[in-house]
Specification:
Number of helices: 21
Strand order of the largest sheet: 6-7-8-9-10-11
Number of strands: 11
Number of domains: 4
Shape: globular
Helix content: 55-70%
Radius of gyration: 32 Å
Distance between the termini: 47 Å
Largest sheet: 6 strands, antiparallel
Oligomer: single chain
């Protein structure tokens, strides 16, 4: 390879490596909290966690490696074009098509790597990941149990835990309802039931047997058959061991391997009902490696075009092209999965169109001055981004003017009255007569342009990645397209909330680093404008974004999170939560009562197969049990009228009273019908005020609210990260100013990795009680705020 080829290869490869790091990190952000919980709980060895992490890499890299190729080509060649190196090559007689040689070497290498991942390493990694997940599932089952929620993940059992200690292995107030037992018929299975209650329990995972061992203390077991109401059995115990199988309950692995785990030969040999899905998977494994070649073919003529903006514009071009490509790919894949079009057409349509555009643009590469259709919009965007700099920007009194900067011109400094020596006090930080000035609007315009492009790009890429994760579930469970579309609609607000600080960080670093590289910062400083003053609009923007995040979390996220959870369960084929099921519902009422029913008609306010269990809050033992074949609400009496049932009162293991009835009403059953129509939600489905009231109620009842308290503090701490991370980014942006947008992106990734890893670690430690909730939630913000203030005040203004 000639020297010039090696130079071009290094330029493209370095930017491709950066793009690979950025996109891979974005995809791994949602997994950091879970990985840190594994570390804190010591439920898996370091080697096992590393292996889990490595097993997820092939599936992510399958998406990000083709993206990295496009990033490297567009940004690398864009930088060479902006610095006139491409024109210099053309001038000395080197044809621009020669750029295809080093770029083609990179594309072939990445295509071969991606093909190895999709055809061999990827399926093996998926199979290994599921094996490790099955091994850890038993261990993690006790940690996944949420207090005060009826859990149906265990076979033939419904579990309710009043309180869970932070370590996850000690429970208080155990309610375990078991349906079935020795059964002779389907009707007997429905009628026979066993109920176990215990004051406390120690949970021990038996990984070899795939079970959880419950060591129960101070409890009782109730057995009865609905078809024999006169017979009832109660047995008490001081200590008792109860094994419960969890492997098949939490996840029932199909007997047939999933398409993602099967080899190419097995996919080709598929001739049954899954033949169509197998062909889609096979085409997908070939299309992603081919995308590396297609992106290189498209990126060379687009990246080599002379344009303003250099790396920054190359980054914007990359995001938009990737978004367009994957939107088309996702659409085609979805149509192919539904059988609307052949698998080959659906999967290869995006590659075909991108390659066709590249072939059309390729002959025009030698026309250095010509504009392409694809780059014309980029030039328009560059002009709009710099439009604030095309007229004078005043930073002080009317007699003083700021630099006049036009695109492609040298910055000139207008005369300005200098401040007296030695008078550069804190008051001089904000010398301007007001806010906002034109200089503020200029900075904010650049900031929000980069912010919007980055946020939109990250969201669409994450949604595309999520779609491919769910494709097999969508096809297996015949999920309608409208359900999938609604899921992504409700998922988008959560992604905005999660990625907004990262997008603000990237936008701040690129904005200021680009201004520093273009000597605009020098011009402002020479005109007497402090760097503190230049940072003011960015800090104000960070505060506004933080308030927007708080408002989003307070108004929109509780509902959208609830909806996207329900839709994801539907896509995954999981049973709905007990409080959403139309049958076999379990709801905790007032005064220690538990309601269980086969049917509830909210229109007629009617119960079928109603069980009411009244518990002693101190010992968590049964005091009264009521059964009614039917129950209807009496509005005048404000109570439930029970029909064809019985009542039993208990004193320890003894039944102190039993009487059957044809029609009866209990005054203590005063929960109105609306009580049974409400939905139970998790902390992320509650806003700040609702979660605060919920924590207060649980704390007053003596429950452990450590984990909920951490999340309550994070509802304010996480949004405030945005201005804090901008404060930290400002001084670092000036340090990498000579590297422009590229240096800003590299630094953004480094800072983001440091913060999210720190935040996930503190959150996990707070969740298991190793740190106070306030410290666990606010420590990351405090640490990075301190670093931000320190470096901010150390800036040479």
């Amino acid at each position: 390879m000639r020297l010039i080829d090696r130079y071009i290869f290094r330029e493209v490869f370095s930017h491709a490596l950066l793009g690979l790091a950025v996109f891979t990190f974005v995809f791994f952000v949602p997994q950091l909290v879970r990985l840190m919980e594994l570390v804190v709980r010591h439920s898996a060895s370091a080697g096992t966690m590393l292996l889990l992490f490595l097993c997820t890499l092939p599936g992510v890299l399958t998406f990000t490696v083709p993206m990295a190729v496009l990033v490297g080509v567009l940004i690398g060649l864009g930088r060479m074009s902006a610095d006139s190196e491409v024109i210099a090559l053309h001038t000395v007689g080197i044809g621009l098509r020669r750029l295809l040689i080093p770029v083609g070497v990179l594309a072939l290498g990445t295509a071969a790597t991606t093909l190895a991942m999709t055809s061999w390493l990827g399926p093996a990694a998926v199979a290994k990941f599921r094996d490790i997940e099955d091994q850890l599932r038993t261990t993690q089952a006790s940690f996944q149990v949420q207090p005060r929620v009826f859990d149906e993940r265990f076979p033939r059992f419904v579990l309710y835990v009043q309180d869970v200690e932070a370590a996850g292995t000690r429970w208080k107030g155990i309610f375990l309802a078991e349906s079935g037992g020795p059964i002779n018929s389907a009707q007997d299975k429905q009628d026979r039931a066993r109920l176990t209650l215990a004051e406390s329990a120690i949970v021990i995972a038996d990984r070899a047997e795939g079970k959880l061992q419950f060591h129960l203390r101070n409890g009782a077991t109730h057995e009865y058959n609905r078809s024999e109401p006169d017979r009832y059995s109660v047995s008490t115990f001081g200590e008792s061991d109860l094994p419960i199988t969890v492997t098949d309950a939490t996840y029932q692995r199909p007997s047939k391997l999933a398409n993602a785990e099967r080899s190419a030969r097995e996919l080709l040999a598929e001739t049954g009902d899954g033949q169509w899905d197998a062909r889609v998977e096979l085409h997908r494994r070939l299309a992603f490696p081919a995308a590396c070649l297609v992106f290189a073919l498209l990126g060379v003529p687009v990246g080599a075009r002379p344009r303003r903006g250099g790396r920054a514009m190359g980054f914007v071009l990359t995001l938009l092209l990737i978004i367009g490509y994957y939107l088309l790919f996702v659409t085609g894949a979805g149509m192919a999965r539904r059988g609307a079009i052949p698998p080959g057409m659906g999967i290869w349509a995006a590659n075909f169109l991108a390659g066709l555009i590249g072939l059309v643009l390729l002959p025009r590469m030698e026309q250095v001055r010509a504009e392409s259709i694809l780059t014309r919009w980029a030039e328009t965007f560059a002009d709009w981004r710099r439009s604030a700099g095309s007229r004078p920007v005043h930073a002080g009194p009317a007699s003083s003017a700021m630099p006049v900067r036009k695109p492609g011109s040298v910055v000139s400094i207008a005369p300005r009255v200098a401040a007296p020596p030695g008078r550069r006090t804190s008051a001089g930080i904000f010398r301007a007569a007001g806010f906002p000035l034109l200089v503020d609007l200029y900075i904010l315009r650049n900031f929000f342009a980069y912010f919007t492009a980055t946020l939109l790009g990250f969201i669409l890429l994450l949604e595309a990645f999520t779609f491919f994760e769910l494709l097999e579930d969508i096809a297996r469970h015949n999920i309608p397209a409208l359900v999938v579309a609604n899921y992504f609609v409700f998922l988008t607000p959560h992604l905005i909330y999660l990625l907004l600080p990262l997008a603000a960080l990237v936008a701040t670093l690129i904005t200021l680093a680009t201004m520093a590289k273009n000597n605009e910062i020098t011009a402002f400083k020479a005109s007497g404008v402090s760097l503190y003053r230049l940072a003011l609009p960015l800090l104000v923007a960070g505060l506004l974004l933080a308030f927007a995040m708080i408002a989003l979390d307070d108004t929109t996220l509780p509902y959208t999170n609830q909806r996207q959870d329900a839709l994801r369960n539907q896509i995954k084929g999981r049973p709905a939560q007990t409080f959403f099921q139309p049958r076999r519902q379990w709801i905790f009422g007032e005064g220690g009562k538990i309601y269980n029913y086969d049917l509830f008609d909210p229109d007629r306010n009617f119960f079928g197969g109603l069980n009411v269990l009244e518990l002693d809050p101190a010992s968590f033992q049964l005091r009264r049990r009521v059964y009614a074949a039917r129950a209807r609400w009496s509005e005048p009496a404000k109570t439930w009228i029970l029909e064809e049932g019985w009542v039993r009162d208990f004193q320890g293991p003894n039944v102190t009273r039993y009487f059957p009835f044809v029609a009866f009403n209990l005054e203590e059953l005063r929960e109105p019908p609306g009580y049974f129509k409400r939905e139970v939600r998790q902390y992320y489905q509650l806003n700040w005020g609702e979660l605060h009231r919920y924590i207060g109620e649980l704390q007053q009842a003596g429950f452990d609210v450590t984990r909920l308290s951490v999340q309550w503090h994070r509802k304010i701490a996480f949004p405030l990260l945005t201005p804090i991370i901008i404060l930290l980014a400002v001084p670092f942006a000036f340090l990498v100013g000579t590297r422009g947008a590229l240096g800003g992106i590299v630094l953004a990734v480094s800072i983001a990795i440091a913060y999210w890893a720190t935040s996930a670690l503190f959150e996990a430690m707070g969740g298991v009680g190793q740190l106070p909730p306030v410290l666990a939630a606010w420590a990351p913000d405090t640490i990075f705020a301190f670093l931000g203030v320190y470096f901010f005040l150390k800036m040479p203004t």
